Amino acid sequence: MSTYMDRKPVNGKKKGRSVVTSTGSRLRVLDGNAGKKKKKTRPHILESLEGKGKWILAAAAIAVLAVAASAVTYILDHYHVETVYVEGNIHYTSEEIIALVTSERFGDNSLFLSLKYKNKGIQGIPFIEKMDVKVLSPDTVRIIVYEKSVAGYVEYLDRYMYFDRDGIIVEASEMKTDGIPEITGISFDQVILYEPLPVENQEIFKKILSMTQILSKYGISADKIYFDRSSEMTLYFGDVRARLGGEDNIEEKVGRLQQILPAAEGKKGVFRLESYKGSGDNVSFEQDHP
Questions:
Q1: 3-class DSSP state for residue 112?
Q2: Structure pTM?
Q3: Which of 89, 101, 182, 216 fits a disulfide with 224 by CB distance 3.0 to 4.6 angstroms?
Q4: Which residues of the chain have pLDDT under 70?
């Protein structure tokens, strides 16, 4: 029978166990991991590698920041706006449009402006639907203004309610804009933004659009267009009025009005154009009584 005997530790360490067999032979028993050489770790090498890795990451980050800073500096310097062209603006001067576009931060950078205003709708600026900025060269841009189509306005609750060719209210403003006629003589009980003006005869808007287009063709700007119960029109130019009557020969009437209107400057009265049919017909001017 075999007998197990623990060997005494040598220098405080166990080297294994001794086994005495039935024949008296002594065997040495070692643990499973005995005989394997343990690899020695070198902490200073690991620390060195970790340190180099941190330095590489830091250097890469600094390089990226340097490249980004250089790119920003180049863009700010190279794309500085010096010349601006404006087109499509009617209700605002070119100077006003430029001030609107360039007033914010980086507003003098052509690349920034082209990205910001690329087919972007404009909120909070009356009569402007959108603006587009095109870069012609690094220091030159073109601002294209797309204004809302406006045919006239009506007054409602101390506001000027502007409507388009279809009678839809497109803008409500406390300020009156020159060049857009006030429309009077039409009845409505409410006005809702972005909805049609609720008038009994919707065909009236076609007449308004036609008249404003004819006036624009002849370079005339009326302050007011009045419709009576028969839908006949009277144009107002300050203290001077022009009664046009029905729609017959309407363009001839406006063409004649263009010729005679300057003669009434400083006067108060009305041009009678109801029966005017063309060249050769006389147009009377009736002065208002004091």
A1: helix
A2: 0.61
A3: 182
A4: 1-53, 66-77, 119-121, 280
